[in-house]
Amino acid sequence: MLLFIHSSMAKKALLIGINYPGTAVELRGCVNDVRRMQKCLIDRYGFSNKDITVLIDTDKTSIQPTGKNIREALKKLIAEGEPGDVLVFHYSGHGTRLPTEEGLFDATDYDECITPCDMNLITDNEFRDMVAEVKKGCLLTIISDSCHSGGLIEEAKEQIGESYVNKPKSRIVTFLVSIVRSLLTTCGISSNDSQRGSGGGHDSVTRESELEDGETVDMKTRYLPLDSYISLLKEQTGQTDIKCGKIRQTLVKVFGEDSSPHVMLSNSMKRNAHRGLLGMFIGKREVNTDGAGSEVKSKHPNNGILLSGSRSEDVYVTRTGKAYGAFSDAIQTILSGTRQEITNKEMVLRAREILKKQKFGQRPASLQRPQLPWVVDPLRLLLPKSPQSVQNVILTFLVSGVVFIPLGAICLFASQGVIEIVDQYDIDCIPLSFRDNKVRYIQGLEDKRCNRTITVTKTMKNPVYVYYQLENYYQNHRRYVKSRQDGQLRSPKDENDVKSCAPEDTVGGEPIVPCGLVAWSLFNDTYDFTRNNQKLSVNKKDISWKSDRDSKFGKNVFPKNFQKGFPIGGKSLDPKIPLSEQEDLIVWMRTAALPIFRKLYGKIETDLEAGDTIKVLLQNNYNTYSFNGKKKLVLSTTSWLGGRNDFLGIAYLTVGSICLSLAVFFSVLYLAKPRQLGDPSYLSWNRSAGGGR
């Protein structure tokens, strides 16, 4: 270890040991780890004592390892490091995990943190930002003897030894579990079991064990469960209402600007939310989704090494009272047993052998790569729950296609089952002598009766709906839509309120009820149907919306001065019938959004058999000729989807087909030429064509 340290280099170190004395999660060996590392750096590697900063919490006269002090000390260490210098950062203490903020994606749903003595957490993302400032050519060695300091995925490139990281669950299972955890977090509920389920969690409890040499020891994991952390945070801050979902707010409230900027949801946190505690030391990374590591790059290559204890344990020897961290002790044991330089790979493998013999559960990890020695937790970068992962994108398109295509087929089938008869009569009902001057005919006093014949091609089960269809008619024109007074329609007290109804507001100084252009232009063509010389009655009751009849048109509001002016716009209303019963008016007053629309005229409540001949006597009264409009009579059945409308089914089929095609395309592309996700270098404007960065 530290084979690159030579006497000609400037050497500086920051050593942090936190025992949390007097708390329920007190450790015993962290400060001892720091003292031993300090002596090792001075005696073996020639560090000067004045260049070693020590932060411990057992000596109240020294600088305490609070969140603020650790940040400042680490920033100072990195800022003072020049090219050619060697920096060492050692941390012994508790590690914990803070649930990620809603809307951010993380492979484990947590931000990994180190736990200062004042509970002012330092997140993995904040560490990454600080360590990224190491100058090019300055070497940084980081030794972390705490839980949740990361691990290597199985079969990762240049992995040293085996990884403790559990094989991830299927993406669907993980996604569903994350939803449940999010709901629990929202409700302020947390459990250690749920943390275990997400990989790598373990209780901070003491257990007794016997070492290979026969010594009896008490061992305690250096992991701080979330519930324990919340209890300590309550003690430190005096806040009593801290829940899982309020930890970040509490840290900001208590520590203010001294809290982690990533706790305060900075842009950097959102940018790096997928990285673990080891991932805090990297800039960019790619990892194959099959578990094989690939090229790694950082802001400054060739300048970092990390030795991680991962599942760290605090050891107390019952007989002698000696206390230490298992991983730190293994390092010191190896160094004291050899005077030759030792590589990091050899260090880790030997440490694993020692810990395994002593029945510790730790699996130390180290990684030093030719292009980036920064150690990462590749599991973080797989992003199994990220919507940007190619698997989830393909799955989304596939599910959308599978859902939309059958739904479109069902809608289209239902629409095709609707039987419609459409008869355009506006031209045919104009006498030949008036074909060149239709407006004169429609405004004149000539007989407007017109006979039409309709043949039923398929049996139409009752009720058969009768519609009139108008085209090139803009009921959505702003001035037209605003020319009405809804208050007047509801209450007789407001009959004089006609301020928005001009030009159809008053006649001879008296208010018009209902006023406005919408009511004035009420459709007034009429239809009478006969079959085999027998009249087919048209039921015009309940053709409007019940909510309109009950709340928008008053039962004690009657037409007054309606169609008494000039010119007459459309149909007249019976002044003895209240507006709530004038259903033709109610239907018409619900204005259409498009220039082609249908409105319900009535219902024929008898079956029309195939081959029936229906004769229609209609009154062609309504003037659509002034604006080149069209009028059509429509007889139609309905389905569970309503009237005939192929658009919805076609739209579903089109979108479903596109989604399914994209799913197939992306699957083929991914299998034939996969590329890794989450790599910002693909967004770089100056990225070379060959893929280099």
UniProtKB/TrEMBL annotation:
Domain annotation Peptidase C14 caspase: ranges: 11-373
UniProt region (Disordered), positions on chain: 192-217, 484-503
Transmembrane segments: 393-414, 650-672
Keyword Transmembrane among record annotations: yes
Keyword field: Membrane, Transmembrane, Transmembrane helix
InterPro entries hit by this protein: Caspase-like_dom_sf, CDC50/LEM3_fam, Pept_C14_caspase
Bias (Basic and acidic residues): 484-498
Pfam family, one: CDC50
Compartments (UniProt record): Membrane
Family that this chain belongs to: Belongs to the CDC50/LEM3 family.
PANTHER family from the UniProt entry: ALA-INTERACTING SUBUNIT 4-RELATED (PTHR10926:SF49), CELL CYCLE CONTROL PROTEIN 50 (PTHR10926)
The name this protein goes by in its record: Peptidase C14 caspase domain-containing protein
Highest classification ranks of the organism: Eukaryota, Viridiplantae, Streptophyta, Embryophyta, Tracheophyta
